[in-house]
Design goal:
By secondary structure, the chain is α+β, with helices and mostly antiparallel strands. The protein is built from 1 helix and 3 strands. The radius of gyration is 15 Å and the shape is globular. Pfam families: HicB_lk_antitox.
Length: 78
């Protein structure tokens, strides 16, 4: 069997408790968390393998080209 090499973007956010949440937008439902960024990255690799092993078809994974991240701050009425 031939190995496939995937280059996936991982988004990392920090929740209100200080926990790092890692997500792979190209694989629906593929996310995990960790106490450190390094731990979250280690765990996201495991999560990616788990998602693929659970039946995610490699042909359906179409990684998008990462361009950058932006944040926007807007006023909303309460």
């Amino acid at each position: 069997m031939k190995d496939n090499l995937l280059n996936l973007t991982v988004l990392i956010e920090q929740d209100e408790d200080g926990i790092y949440v890692a997500k792979v937008p190209d694989i629906p439902g593929c996310y995990t968390q960790g106490n450190t960024i390094a731990q979250a990255m280690e765990r996201i690799e495991e999560a990616i393998h788990a998602c693929i092993d659970a039946g995610e078809d490699l042909a359906d994974i179409m990684p998008m080209k990462f361009i950058g991240l932006q944040q926007v701050e807007i006023k909303v009425k309460a």
